[in-house]
Amino acid sequence: MYFQVSILKYGCTTYVSLDIVSLLPGQIIHRFGVGATTTFVMLLWCVRFLCFSALTNPWLVLPVEFFSGWCVALTFPVINTIADEAVPPGTQTTTIAIAMAAYDGIGESQSHAKYY
């Protein structure tokens, strides 16, 4: 049962919502601003995890995973926009690296560094 839910979760809801939303971050950030978009993304992450904590039926993961595409597709453009606007020139890469270390964790960020 878990395998079926896992296949549907990653195959349908996450990628469909991610494909739809990944076309929109530039317009969303431009229209609402970086601060409002950042607040919206953080609230989406909170709603998503609160919904996960309240689930009793594994099939209810499918509607909750619709938020995954919104969270992922908006988080990284917001981080890049903040790094571009808020930090001095020449330090954008360091800011993005610190944000990715906070997002992924230090161990996973170090494992990605060996490929670059």
Structural write-up:
The protein is an all-alpha fold and 116 residues long. It has helices at 2-21, 25-32, 34-54, 61-64, 66-86, 92-104, 106-113. The protein has one domain. It is 82% helix and 0% strand. Helix 5 runs antiparallel to helix 6 (92-104). The longest helix is centred in the middle third of the chain and has 21 residues, at 34-54. The chain is globular and about 50 Å long. The N and C termini lie far apart (39 Å). The mean pLDDT is 78.
What are the SSEs and their pairings?
Blueprint: H1 2-21, H2 25-32, H3 34-54, H4 61-64, H5 66-86, H6 92-104, H7 106-113
Summary tags:
single chain, mainly alpha, 7 helices, 82% helix, globular
**Envelope shape:** globular
Question: Which consecutive residue ranges, at least 5 long each, have pLDDT under 50?
Answer: none
Radius of gyration: 16 Å
Structural class: mainly alpha
Brief sketch in words of this structure:
With 116 residues, this protein is mainly alpha-helical. It is built from 7 helices and no strands. The chain has one domain.
